[in-house]
Structures are given as structure tokens and as C-alpha cells.
Amino acid sequence: MVCSRLQGRLVLGPDVVARLDAIATDPAESWGLRETIANATEWHRNSQTMAALAWVLGITDEQLDTLFGAAMQVVV
Fold first, then answer.
1. Do 18 and 31 contact (CB within 8 A), yes or no?
2. pTM above threshold 0.85
3. Given phi > 0 = left and psi -120 to 50 = alpha, else beta, which region is 4?
4. Tell me: the pLDDT tens digits for 18-55?
5. For the purposes of burial, counting CB atoms within 10 Å of the CB of 7, is it exposed (0-12), middle (13-18) or buried (19 or more)?
6. Residues 8 and 67 sit within 8 Å (Cβ to Cβ)
7. d(CA 46, CA 21)
8. Model confidence over 60-71: pLDDT tens digits?
9. What is the pLDDT of residue 42?
10. Cα separation, 50 vs 74, whole angstroms
11. CA end-to-end distance (rounded Å), the chain
């Protein structure tokens, strides 16, 4: 499953997106994770970075599947 960054952010909602943005600017987080949040144009469900982001946000595999399914339905 693949969605755009915008599709993913719209489905996650303002509270989770605010947490993502805080991670993206936190120098204590890994550089790769921060760059992915800030610059990835596509989110791939099976990527290692997506697994790391889900873990940091407390999102389960099942929830991540549901989020990706919903995001892929968003037309922008």
C-alpha cells in the first residue's frame, strides 16, 4: 500500500500530525526519521521507516493497515 504524504496526514488528523511535526524538528530523533517525515512524498506501508514511525506514535500494525486503506481513498 502506498499513499501520498498529504493523504496520510489528512487521515491521521491534526493531533497526530502535530506529534509528527514535533518529531521532525526534534534533534534528539534520528536524522533519517526526521527527513522522512519532512520530505517523503510517498508513504509505503511496508517500509522500515513507516514501521518506526508507527512505533513512535503507538500505532499498531492493524491500525496502520486501516490508516493506509483510508488514506488511499482520499482524493486530493
1. no
2. yes
3. beta
4. 999 999 999 999 898 899 999 999 999 999 989 989 99
5. buried
6. yes
7. 21
8. 999 999 999 999
9. 96
10. 19
11. 17
